[in-house]
Amino acid sequence: MKNYIHIKIWGYIMALAVITSCTKDFEEINTNPNAPVSVQPSLLLRQVIYDYGEQMSYEGFTAGNLLGQYTTALDFNLFDRHNLKSPQLGGNPWPIFYKNLRDNEIILNQARTVETYAVYEGPALILKAYMTAALTDIFGDVPYSEGFRGKDETVTPVYDAQEAIYLAEGGILDNLDKGIVAIQNYSGTIALQGDILFNGNLQAWVRFANSLKIKSLMRISNKTDVTTDLQAIYDGGEYIGLNSQNAVFDFSDGEPNNFRLARLRIGDFNNFVLSETMEEVLINLNDDRVERLFRPFANSTNGDFNGLLNGIDASQTSIALADYSLTGTIFRENTGLLDANFMTSWETQFLLAEAAEKGIIVANAQQLYETGVTQAFEYWQVPLSSTYLTIDAAYGLTGANPIEQIITQKWIANMINGYEGWIEYRRTGFPQLKTISASLNNDLIPVRMPYPAEEEALNNKNYTTAATATDDNSINIKVWWDQ
Questions:
Q1: Which of 22, 76, 300, 367 has the maximal Cβ count within 10 Å?
Q2: Is the peptide bond before 95 cis (omega within 30 degrees of 0)?
Q3: How far apart are CA 205 and CA 439, in angstroms?
């Protein structure tokens, strides 16, 4: 018995020694020598630009176009009826924002801590501002100051007020300014790699940043005086002014880099048809872009286009697909003609035209408007008719509201960025969207997206504070710049 006890104790000692030895070398033994400890910023930059652009183009087309009333959903259309808590073919951009903002933060941290990566600081700050603006414009108050650092710090970030996200140090406008300064102060010889927007052209990033400043300043222009800053940018002229300078990357005709609508089954693609709102705007303007953006409906004998009022009750209404216009071949068969659109010259021209018309800057509003229209037709590869700017969409037509004309033209051109059309409608009231057919939101057009259900589950304390501030996460509570 005594020997047995000694043997047993000795066994425990040996086992403990083995465990201790294994634990001591655990990290070394269990580390894959072929797995990278960190990702090169060039690879991350390429990934962030592509992933965000590809996914938000799809989101903008599916869900954004429904909110902006470019298209109507025939089925799977709870979202089109404004039950925004029920995303179907689209309508959940939250994880797209946070995944790419997290990865972009890694680039930014690398640029600030590794001397050979310094060239990435400016573009990373500009991308952070760009994605953050889209995030907060869609949702309102969101996790920001603690929002992109879950790996190193908190996984339950506080929600920051939209006003601070725009105006505070480290916010949207501050990051755009700092991004420009970082580029201007960069004196190294290492080129920017992985840049599928501008192929490493740092001056193009400066133009991009200034166009984003114009956009952000106009977005908050009802809340704060932006005159001095906008006039300085306009006078400096260092913004995106030509389509050749646009912040875009091209889709291809074939996989894997074609527009995602081309990879959906035909039934999903055929779910989206011309909206009645879009039809009326384009047909009333004799706008030839209707032939690029949509197809004549199948039952037409004269190549006509027909739209459907948004938000039908698909369970109670029988709709014949052949009676309505599908979206154009550019979104499925010919996606090589399409691109992921971050910021364009025509959008910049329309923003400046609005600022000029409102007296925020001293500039020729009509000239800026006409340049924007011309560039928007060029962007969509449609010839501009000789009468469009003199008759059909002539600036300042008798009885026309110039601001409505400017915003409507920007709305048309933003079809692949449907969230933008909806956001600008919320800011300006134009174009005049319709009361939908079978609303699940008391006939109200939503003015923000709801926080997703996973926030309530995973970040409950901070979610509850934000939800309380929006009347239990209501889609009818305006964001700060819209109040």
A1: 76
A2: no
A3: 42
Question: Domain 41-255+337-482: which CATH class?
Answer: mainly alpha
- Retrieve residue 219's tokens: 């977005």
Per-residue DSSP letters for 379-430?
Answer: HTT-PPPTTIIIIIT-TT-TT--HHHHHHHHHHHHTGGGHHHHHHHHHHH--
Taking the chain, what is the end-to-end CA distance rounded to the nearest angstrom?
85
381 vs 394: CA distance, rounded Å:
21
Q: How far apart are CA 80 and CA 60, in angstroms?
A: 13
**Nearest Cα to 199, choosing from 243, 240, 248?**
248
pLDDT number for residue 153 = 63
Residues in the chain with pLDDT values less than 70: 1-37, 150-153
Closest residue by Cα to residue 227 from 417, 384, 360, 393 = 360
Task: Give the CA distances from residue 110 to residues 39, 170, 195, 237, 296, in Å, rounded to whole numbers and listed in that order.
Answer: 10, 17, 16, 32, 51
Give the separation between CA 192 and CA 204, rounded to whole angstroms: 12
Number of C-beta neighbours around residue 452 at 10 A = 19
SS3 343: strand
Q: Per-residue pLDDT tens for 298-318?
A: 999 999 999 999 999 988 888
| 8-state DSSP, 273 | E
